[in-house]
Design goal:
By secondary structure, the chain is an alpha/beta fold. The protein has one domain: Response regulator (Rossmann fold, 3-Layer(aba) Sandwich), CATH 3.40.50. The protein is 37% helix and 18% strand. It contains 7 helices and 7 strands. The chain is globular and about 35 Å long.
């Protein structure tokens, strides 16, 4: 039996300037019952971070006013142990520079890749769940696609990368 490792029920600060992308990632995080606080800019993220504690910060790289690596460095200055995951279409550029984020997840990514990156950042809080179990965290692919269709094609791209063993099932296979 395959075993998938992921974290569930964490407080996450999600920083993404593109509203459609932010909403799509929030939907994915909601599958695993994470409490997501959204920020549309690095400045907004710093304000939110000052007033709360987060288990993980997920930030985009290319944002106006403050790049994701600048935000990550500011957050690390405030809380050196803060786990930070950067999601970006520019991962190859970041690999050549010193980056303050703990990990970089290239866009587009699948739910499985997001879960794995998060679990590596927060290994002590990871839970093990059989990949083929009847977990209540499973949602039908069509339900997620319907919710995301109005705002973005980003979730559609992510769902197309999923395999049946990843935890998302087509509505025709749901029991």
């Amino acid at each position: 039996m395959n075993t998938a490792i992921w974290v569930s029920g964490k407080r996450i600060l999600l920083v993404e300037d593109d509203q459609a992308v932010r909403e799509s990632i929030k939907l994915l995080l909601g599958i695993d019952r994470h409490a997501v606080t959204e920020a549309a800019s690095g400045r907004e993220a710093l304000e939110l971070f000052a007033g709360s504690r987060y288990d993980l910060v997920i930030t985009d790289y290319l944002m106006p006013e403050m790049l994701g690596d600048e935000l990550a460095q500011s957050l690390k200055n405030l809380a050196p142990a803060q786990p930070i995951l950067m999601v970006t279409a520019y991962a190859e550029k970041l690999d050549k520079t010193g980056k303050p984020a703990d990990a970089v997840l290239p866009k587009p990514f699948s739910l499985k890749e997001l879960r794995q990156a998060m679990a590596r950042r927060m290994q002590s809080a990871a839970c093990t769940e059989p990949a083929e179990s009847s977990s209540p965290l499973r949602f039908s692919r069509s339900a997620l696609q319907d919710r995301a269709a109005a705002s973005s094609s980003v979730l559609e791209e992510i769902l197309q990368r999923e395999t049946p063993a990843s935890g998302l099932r087509d509505s025709g296979t749901d029991q």
